[in-house]
TrEMBL record:
This is DNA oxidative demethylase AlkB. The keyword Metal-binding applies. Its EC number is 1.14.11.33. PROSITE patterns: FE2OG_OXY. Keywords: Dioxygenase, Iron, Metal-binding, Oxidoreductase. The gene is alkB. GO terms for molecular function: broad specificity oxidative DNA demethylase activity. Residues 113-213 form the Fe2OG dioxygenase domain. Pfam families: 2OG-FeII_Oxy_2.
Length: 218
């Protein structure tokens, strides 16, 4: 697929109060980010986590940074240790940290200090059902979400599961930032359509940056 906007400067699309799409914001960093993902996955491999309800997630996941999102039989949690390896998650690569900092600032959250980055890998058919990101103790911090590779349909609703959904195509290099009034808005990813992307072949990656620990008081 020819991306007519490949060379375009990034542009912004308002999504909801406190939420914005930074179109193509990660386009120029993408190759570096993808190389870093390969290195991270060689230490902490992608795996299909099992929800407390016994459902195996279709999205494959790993993490980097001081804390990583994971599941156990009791629920969802942030852990400093990868339960698969027993080691700490790989550190947040410099390219991840600087892209996230720039995106958060562009979206109006200059003080965002992520301590967790969840890496999602979608194969054709993989999806993420409608959910809220609510496992983080400090909801003043926004979510920064980076799309790489194949496009996917992102659903973005409101505070209630039944609120009307916006459906937006997220393409390679797009970054969505939500916080403030929309921090707890429901969102999800519709089943990935198969295709081919020159940098990721048959899949889509998503980086989700979060502040998952308590901010240290200065
Ligand atoms: C998420 O909600 O954690 C991921 C969203 C995405 O893959 O774009
Ligand atoms: Fe989410």
């Amino acid at each position: 697929m020819l991306d007519l906007y490949a060379d375009a400067e990034p542009w912004q699309e308002p999504l909801a109060p406190g939420a914005v799409i930074l179109r193509r914001f990660a386009f120029s960093a993408a190759q570096r980010l993808l190389q870093d993902i390969v290195a991270i996955a060689s230490q902490s491999p992608f795996r299909h986590m099992v929800t407390p309800g016994g459902y195996t997630m279709s999205v494959a996941m790993t993490n980097c940074g001081p804390l990583g999102w994971t599941t156990d039989q009791h629920g969802y949690l942030y852990s400093p240790v990868d339960p698969l390896t027993g080691e700490r998650w790989p550190p947040l690569p410099e390219a991840f940290a600087s892209l996230c900092q720039q995106a958060a600032t562009a979206a109006g959250y200059p003080d965002f200090m992520p301590d967790a980055c969840l890496i999602n890998r979608y194969a054709p058919g993989a999806k993420l059902s409608l959910h809220q990101d609510k496992d983080e103790p400090d909801l003043r911090a926004p979510i920064v979400s980076v799309s790489l590779g194949l496009p996917a349909v992102f659903q973005f609703g409101g505070l209630h599961r039944n609120d009307p959904l916006k459906r937006l195509l997220l393409e390679h290099g797009d970054v969505v930032v939500w916080g403030g009034e929309s921090r707890l808005f429901y969102h999800g990813i519709q089943p990935l359509k198969s295709g081919f992307h020159p940098l990721t072949a048959d899949c889509r990656y998503n980086l989700t940056f979060r502040q998952a620990g308590k901010k240290e008081l200065k």
